[in-house]
């Protein structure tokens, strides 16, 4: 499992204090290196979702790969998802929202308020 080894090494570099866990600020900085700009509150939510030790980091990585794949499958080289694409991508990864909740979520996470979600917007959603 070479990917696991690579992720553990990456985790070790991000865990600059060598505590065996990563803070929200450390994870936000690591995402920024990969051109993913999340609000600190979103990064904190990711940590709450996965409890956050080395093993949970691997689970978060699997989730992010799944979300990125759904985004890539539908973005059609545009670099964003339109609202209909977002709905389809969410269904693809196992999320189902009723119409009012879906549109409210899209509006909340559409940082530019243009009806287009970039990858980091979509992951945040």
From TrEMBL:
InterPro entries: EF-hand-dom_pair (IPR011992), Peflin/Sorcin_CaBP (IPR051426)
Gene Ontology molecular function: any one: metal ion binding
Name of the protein described by the UniProt record: Calcium-dependent protein kinase 23 isoform 10
Subcellular location: Cytoplasm
Keyword ATP-binding among UniProt keywords: no
A GO cellular component annotation in the UniProt record: cytoplasm
Organism: Theobroma cacao (Cacao)
Keyword Disulfide bond: no
Signal peptide: none
Keyword annotations from UniProtKB, A to Z: Calcium, Cytoplasm, Kinase, Metal-binding, Repeat, Transferase
